Every structure is written in C-alpha cells, then in structure tokens.
Amino acid sequence: MNLLMRLFRHRNGIWYAEISRQKRVSLKTRDRAQAQALYRKLKKAVLDGRLAALQGRLPDKNLADFAEEYLEFSRKTQARSTWQNNRTALGHLLTVLGARARLAQIDRRTLEIFLADLPVSIISRNTYLRHLKAAFARAVAWGYLRSNPGQGLKQIKDHRHLPRYLEREDIQRLLAAETDPRYARLWRFLVLTGCRRSEALQLQARDIDWPRQVIHVRRTKARREKLLPITSALAELLRDLPQVGRLWPWQPDAASHRFAKIARRAGLAHVRLHDLRHTFASHLAMAGVALQTIQALLGHEDIKATQIYAHLSESHLREAAGKLKI
After folding, report:
1. 36-78, pLDDT tens digit by residue?
2. pLDDT per residue over 240-268, tens digit each?
3. 236 lies in a domain?
4. How many whole angstroms separate alpha carbon 229 and alpha carbon 55?
5. Which domain holds residue 191?
6. Torsion over CA of 190, 266, 241 and 202, rounded to 10 degrees?
7. Distance between CA atoms of residues 248 and 240, nearest Å
8. Where residue 263 sits, what CATH number does that domain have?
9. Which residue has the higher pLDDT, 228 or 314?
10. So what's the pLDDT on residue 150?
11. Are 6 and 13 in contact (CB under 8 A)?
C-alpha cells in the first residue's frame, strides 16, 4: 500500500509527520535521528491500521504490547513527568486486566469498573483517567482501535479539596528544621516563587536575567516559558546559589523525600512539597492580589485552576470591610 506520508521539519525546528493533507502529527523533537525513528514507527502503525481496516478488522494487539510501544513513544516525545504518569496508569491497568488482554476488547464499562475499584485518592484516579484517555487516543490514531473507550468519561469532582498552605510560623519552623543550607534555599525559593518542583530543579544559572530582573523558567507543565520577577528577598537568595550550571543538583523524587523528612521533623507531617506552591499563591490572595495576576505568576493556562484560591481572597476582603465602622 502506498502511503502519502512524509517527514518534514517546521521552521521552529520541530519535526512533524504528515499523515494526510488534513492531518499532521508533531514528533516533539528537534533531533533528526530521533524524528526518523519515531516516523518509521508511526508509519508502520498507520500502515498496519489501514491494512486491517481494508480487511474489516482491527490489528490483534494485546495491552502489554501496546503499553510497551506507547511508553517508548511517550518517553521520547513527552515530558518525564508525563511519561511517569503514563507508565503508572498503564501499569495499574495491566495489573488488573492482565498482559494478554486484547486492546480492542477494552470498552467504557471496563474502564469505569477499573477506575471505581482503584484504592487511590480522587486526585490520583482523575490523573489515571486523563493519561489512559490520552493513551487510547493514540491507539485510535495508530489504527489499533476504532474509538477511544475513555471518551465521555468525566473526572470526579472533589468539592472537599482546598489548597493547603503554610502560615508564616510554619515556614519558619520548616526552615529551622532543615540542616542542609542548600535544601533550605530550595524551600525558600519555592515559597517565594510558587514554582513547581520540576520547574525549580531544571533551572540553571544562565536562566537568571539580572539586567531584566527576571528568571526564565524554560519549560513549565504547559510546555511554555514563563518569567518570574526577582524580588529583593529572591535576589538575596539567588546570590548564594551556584553561578554556573544547575542551581540545585537533585532529582525531583530526592527533593520530595527530603522535604517529607524535614516536614515530619518540624511537626508538619501533613504538609507536602507541592504545598509550598499553594503557600505562595494563598498568601498573595490574602494580600489582595488579583487572581489574574496570581494566574500569570503560577503559569496556569486556565483561570479555573487559580480559582481554588478565591475563597482566601474573599475572606480577606470581608475581614477588611468588617473593620469599617460608620
């Protein structure tokens, strides 16, 4: 079968595969050899799907083989955190359904039962759902499925979840419990900037733009760049960091384990590392900063993600208004 596919490089440097005149797929790499390897796999997947379609059937793909193929694709084209979440979600599904489960036999009911029986939090369940839907969408694109079995499944709303943040006294207790000054500077940096763990640990000395008084965060969760203003407190902290190379030498998991240990030592065992980001945003909201400004500083694409701090802003405003005596 002659496929009208081609591999080409966009002017932004990213390689793309054109499957048809109406459909192009970003390979999310600037490396020619990596792009060619991904293109060959994609072309084979498309060809297998079209041959099967001509014969009126789907490729006989089992879940284990698809998971291996998809995770390799994810590892090469997506952020490490995304690949890790894909691996966890598919790993749970493989454990429940078995490696020999036929991909084409997984339907919506199967996924609904699988998710309902998972002994995890609502947040984790929603995370697995998002990543499984993305995986099955790729299976449809590769011709392994006619439709996405996760299509139409909604995330569970958790009305009880509100951002957990540290009071100023808690922050002081946490920093006092930390014996390593390098880690102490990382905790302070996260409180002063609201950066995610992964965003902070990827920063290098060259990302600090002293003339413009900003820090360039090159790759956020939304795969975009954002700028952080350098305040006087932050400037003092930055001067104690390495002037060449990475600002912090640790992997994300190592930082999380260290934080959990120090939080327990400080009597804050319920606090997670990500709560330092909530602390930054919560104190801004209580200081009366507009949600749109907080959204920009956090790097949220959607204002809805920032609105979890709205109740703090409103309570602060009510408190201020209540001081008026006429």
Report:
1. 988 888 777 776 655 454 445 567 789 999 999 999 999 888 8
2. 999 999 999 999 899 999 999 999 999 99
3. yes
4. 59
5. 168-322
6. -40
7. 12
8. 1.10.443.10
9. 228
10. 93
11. no
3-state secondary structure of 249: coil
Residues written for the chain: 326
Q: What pLDDT, on the 0 to 100 scale, is given for residue 314?
A: 67
Q: Give the rounded distance of the alpha carbon of 72 from its chain centre.
A: 18
Residues 185, 48: Cα–Cα separation, whole Å: 53
Same-domain pairing of 97 and 49? yes
User: How does DSSP assign 59-124, residue by residue?
Assistant: ---BHHHHHHHHHHHHHHHS-HHHHHHHHHHHHHHHHHH-TT-BGGG--HHHHHHHHHH--S-HHH
Q: Specify the amino acid at residue 161.
A: H
Cα separation, 29 vs 77, whole angstroms: 7
pTM of the model: 0.59
**Are 63 and 128 in a shared domain?**
yes
**Is residue 45 located within the same domain as residue 176?**
no
Q: Rounded mean pLDDT of the chain?
A: 86
Considering only 100-109, 158-167, 247-256, 258-267, which range has the smallest mean pLDDT?
158-167
- Residue 248: how many other CB atoms lie within 10 Å: 18
Query: How many domains are there within the chain?
Result: 2
- Say if residues 166 and 268 touch (Cβ distance below 8 Å): yes
Instruction: Determine the pLDDT at residue 5.
Output: 80
**pLDDT (0 to 100) of residue 68:** 93
- Write down which residue in 141, 158, 190 finishes a domain: 141
Distance CA 91, CA 85 (A): 10
Distance CA 297, CA 320 (A): 25
